[in-house]
């Protein structure tokens, strides 16, 4: 009897041990499963962080390539005057501006809006040192002026190069859209351009009959600097309803923006209308007129005889190559060129 009790006890202990061992074995795989789940969650979190990081940078296509830029740059340097308006149009103030050490090159109302900006040299020769000290997160350069220093600018901050110096009317609108895209505000600029086109359309309704010819003239101190037909303001005049009288600037001594004519050559073209862009650099006589205006050949011009010579601000019509610059020209054309039409 004792023997049977002992055997029963041993069997019971063995059974309990087997059951405990089995439970222990079944629980073992749970730990790797938990670890695997945690690993998956970590990888997922990493992917979200990467996606969030990539969303903070956008790639902008421009004239000299493609450049990743911060989606909302806070400190921007502009190396042409027209880029100032493009930023202000979408509510962004530049930190650094090339003003040629002459703040009066910038329209008074624009100067007020960018008060406190840091001058960073001239448009022709921006100061890399001053730009670097600003620690910008975006630089907007001109395609033609700054292509030779583009690599150096890009070492300082992400740099996009766009047309302004040699921009025509369409180029200027495209540049404005790209600048806005670079600061994450393209839709705002689209509205600005739409408003501009409405303003232009209203002026076109007053356009003179027969598409009279026009020339845009700057300095007349020595030779007569006539803006080329590709120039921003020249093309805008054709949008107003004029025909640009100079067809081929290469026939004359010319630069990228001007054809330099003699009075005899100007008389050969003989436009119906002349828009004279004035600045303090113009030579003036005691009466305040230009010496050229006393020349018999000047007086023989059709536009002079018919009193179709209009004087405008050279900074507004030559340097402010922007949507707002175009709006200023529309306003001035409405008051001057179209007033009696």
UniProtKB/TrEMBL annotation:
It comes from the Bacteria. Residues 35-48 have a biased composition (Low complexity). It is found in: Cell envelope. This is Iron-dicitrate ABC transporter substrate-binding protein. It comes from Paenibacillus elgii. GO terms for biological process: iron coordination entity transport. Residues 28-48 are annotated as: Disordered. Belongs to the bacterial solute-binding protein 8 family. Keywords: Signal, Transport. The keyword Transport applies. It holds the Pfam family Peripla_BP_2. Residues 1-22 form the signal peptide. Residues 75-341 form the Fe/B12 periplasmic-binding domain. CDD domains: FhuD. One of its GO terms (cellular component) is outer membrane-bounded periplasmic space. Its main location: other.
């Amino acid at each position: 009897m004792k023997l049977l009790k002992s055997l029963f006890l041993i069997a019971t202990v063995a059974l309990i041990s087997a059951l405990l061992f089995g439970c222990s074995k079944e629980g073992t795989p749970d730990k790797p499963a938990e670890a695997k789940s945690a690993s998956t969650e970590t990888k997922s979190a990493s992917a979200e962080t990467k996606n969030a990081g990539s969303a903070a940078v956008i790639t902008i296509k421009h004239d000299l390539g493609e450049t990743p830029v911060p989606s909302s740059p806070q400190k921007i340097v502009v190396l042409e005057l027209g880029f100032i308006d493009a930023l202000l149009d979408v509510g962004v103030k530049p930190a650094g501006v090339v003003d040629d050490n002459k703040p009066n090159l910038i329209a008074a109302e624009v100067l007020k809006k960018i008060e406190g900006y840091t001058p960073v040299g001239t448009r022709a020769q921006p100061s890399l040192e001053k730009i670097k000290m600003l620690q910008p997160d975006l630089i907007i350069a001109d395609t033609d002026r700054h292509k030779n220093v583009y690599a150096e600018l890009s070492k300082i901050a992400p740099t996009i190069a766009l047309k302004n110096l040699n921009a025509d009317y369409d180029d200027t609108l495209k540049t404005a859209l790209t600048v806005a895209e670079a600061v994450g505000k393209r839709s705002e600029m689209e509205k600005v351009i739409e408003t501009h086109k409405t303003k232009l359309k209203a002026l076109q309704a007053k356009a003179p009959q027969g598409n009279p010819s026009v020339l845009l003239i700057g300095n007349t101190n020595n030779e007569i600097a006539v803006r080329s037909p590709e120039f921003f303001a020249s093309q805008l005049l054709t949008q107003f309803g004029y025909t640009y009288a100079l067809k081929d600037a290469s026939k004359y001594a010319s630069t990228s923006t001007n054809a330099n004519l003699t009075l005899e050559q100007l008389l050969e073209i003989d436009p119906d209308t002349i828009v004279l862009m004035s600045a303090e650099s113009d030579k003036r006589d005691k009466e305040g007129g230009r010496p050229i205006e006393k020349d018999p050949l000047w007086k023989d011009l059709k536009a002079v005889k018919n009193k179709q010579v209009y004087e405008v601000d050279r900074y507004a019509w030559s340097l402010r190559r922007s949507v707002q610059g175009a709006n200023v020209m529309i306003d001035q054309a409405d008051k001057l060129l179209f007033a009696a039409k």
